[in-house]
Amino acid sequence: MWALSEVREKVYNFQKLPLDKSHFITEVTDYKKANAEFERLLQALILEIGKFDSSILHNNPKDLTFKIVRDTRFSHDKSPYNPAFCAHISPKGKLPVPAGYKKEHPQAEYLKYKRWYLEYPLKDTELSDAEAFLVKAAEIFQIMKPFNDYLNRALVGFQMPAR
Description:
By secondary structure, the chain is an all-alpha fold. The chain is built from 5 helices and no strands. The chain has helices at about 5-15, 20-50, 60-65, 110, 130-155. The chain is globular and about 55 Å long. The N and C termini lie far apart (about 45 Å). The model has no long low-confidence stretch (mean pLDDT about 75).
C-alpha cells in the first residue's frame, strides 16, 4: 500500500506530463495504480463510516470518485487535471448537478445554493499513515453526521422546480 502522500505525489506528477509518449505511458500506469489505491482506501473509509452510518455501505468507490480531468471552461485556472483524488460520500452517492435552468427562472437565486458540504483540511503529515488516516477521517465524518442529517431532514419531500 502506498502512503497517501505518495498517491498525492503521483497525481501532481501526472499533471506535469511532457509530450514524450514513453514517459506518458509510465505516468499513466502510475496514475492507474494510485487511483486503484485511492479506491481501496475509499472502500476502507466507507466501511469505517458504515459502523455508525449504514446508509452509505451500498456505495461502490468507483462510482463516488471524480474524474482527474477538470472542466476548465469557466475557470481562471486552466490546468487540465485535478490536483488530488476526490470522492463524494453520501447515501445517494455522487449526484449530478442540476442543469438546464435558465437564469431568469423564478427560483434561480435558490438554485444557486444547490450544494452544501463540510470540509476539513488535513496536513500532509496526517496522510502518511493510512490506518491512522482512516481512524481520523471516520471521527471527522461522525462529527459531521448530525449536520448532514439535519440538512437531509429539511429536504425530505423537496422537489426541484419544473424547468
